[in-house]
Amino acid sequence: MVKEKVVLVNFWSSPFGSRVKIALEEKGIPYEYKEEDLFNKSSFLSTINPVHNKVPVLVHNQKPVCESLNILEYIDETWTDLSPRFLPSDPHQRALARFWADFIDKELYESSKKIYRGIGEEQVIGKNEVLRILKLVEGEIGDKPFFGGDNLGLVDITLIPFYSRFYTWETFGKFSIEEECPNLVAWAKRCLQKESVAKSLPDPIKIYEFILDLNKYFAK
Amino acid sequence: MGNESEIRLLGTAASPFVNRVQFALNLKSIKYEYTEEYLARKSELLLKSNPVHKKVPVLLHADKPPICESQIIIEYLDEIQPDLFQLLPSASLDRANCRFWAAYIDNKFFPLYEELRRTTKKAGQEAIKEQMIEATKLLEEAFVKSSNGKAYFGGDQVGYLDVVLGCFVRWIKHVDELNDFNTFDEVRVPELAKWAKNVSSHEALKSVTPGIETLVSFFGLLHIYKPPYQ
């Protein structure tokens, strides 16, 4: 049996990197974790991700895979005998899961930045955009425990890392996500009961302090 | 599979994202009913089928929930019709490579053409053209690696990336002409230039590529709804 070598190159606060951590932990895939300093990027990062020079990158037997959703599908398609499968087997359900994951991936992070990096009108716009996204996604849970059904699926893993940022968004934007999206917060708390999620999500207060530091850094 | 009324595509003739889906449907010989949407006055069906983005293309298959986003539609088509003209490769690393470049094309490369269309100041236009030159350099390298000396990204046959990028060739040519630029320049990106000619003349794409009047008319609409930056 070939010894698989899996390395996750990441930065602790990245919600995109947390997705990959959760995925590896859920399937029980052994991996080495490499923290990359985003303020002093290594030459190693530019060799494994020459196009974007970003984290996360999964390096599997020396071959890099970049972009978090791409990595999630790669993990699901490579370790096919490890459950849970992140994508359902029915092509239609797969297309729907990919749609929601893509929607979250394309819009949530950018909109959320307006809340903590914008001022005045832009903050309000950001808050409204974020709430629109969260409410639309919340509507897809139904009465299942997770978007993936009984287990975490692609959409769960794509969205849950942002839970660490709820405190930051609520504090900057002066609103309560639990009040606006109670089912979503209930879902998030169910996710946190999973060990893979609990050990992969950064502490919300640390995130808040990090964002404050970043704002000071960018203000210079 | 093949009942004509089973698959319906909502689209607009000038949209490269719609052309992309049509290219895939044609390659896979999947019969479909096409409905042209007028984007200045979107139909109830479109708004109901894609409430999140309100955009084309949308694929309706029998009585199942609509499928939106062209790359997602194509993966779906590949999964329901895997035997006839497989678009994505089988190996997971090759699939990851395809998805990586597909994301680059949609998120980094094509948006440059919208930026250029909306940028009126000369300095801004030159800066965008520089980015286009950089991007095509990367795509040329990706093509050389992927094609392995053959005509397409997919090798001898059209594959996923040929469909993802091929649909943009006509649109890009139009923006190039309006801006005194040549994206697929034979000197700068010789392999990509050859590929652009090959893919545009592929029957499955040629048959759905919009003519100049359709493009000009659509660009006129865009000028109103997504006008140049002030």
UniProtKB/TrEMBL annotation, chain A:
GO cellular component: cytosol
Species whose genome carries this gene: Ambrosia artemisiifolia (Common ragweed)
Transmembrane segments: none
Any one GO biological process: glutathione metabolic process
Cellular compartment(s): Cytoplasm, Cytosol
Domain of life: Eukaryota
Coiled coil: none
UniProt entry keywords in alphabetical sequence: Cytoplasm, Transferase
Name assigned to this protein: Glutathione S-transferase
EC number of the protein: 2.5.1.18
PROSITE patterns: GST_CTER, GST_NTER
Record-stated family: Belongs to the GST superfamily.
Database matches in Gene3D superfamilies: 1.20.1050.10, Glutaredoxin (3.40.30.10)
Role noted for this protein: Is involved in the conjugation of reduced glutathione to a wide number of exogenous and endogenous hydrophobic electrophiles.
Pfam families: GST_C_2 (PF13410), GST_N (PF02798)
Catalytic activity: RX + glutathione = an S-substituted glutathione + a halide anion + H(+)
Leading EC class: transferase
GO molecular function: glutathione transferase activity
Domain GST C-terminal: 90-218
GST N-terminal domain span: 4-83
UniProtKB/TrEMBL annotation, chain B:
Gene Ontology biological process: glutathione metabolic process; toxin catabolic process
Record's catalysed reaction(s): RX + glutathione = an S-substituted glutathione + a halide anion + H(+)
Molecular-function GO terms, alphabetical: glutathione transferase activity
Pfam families named among the record's database cross-references: GST_C_3, GST_N_3
Protein name per Swiss-Prot or TrEMBL: Glutathione S-transferase
Gene3D superfamilies (UniProt xref): 1.20.1050.10, Glutaredoxin (3.40.30.10)
Organism (species): Ambrosia artemisiifolia (Common ragweed)
Keyword Cytoplasm tagged: yes
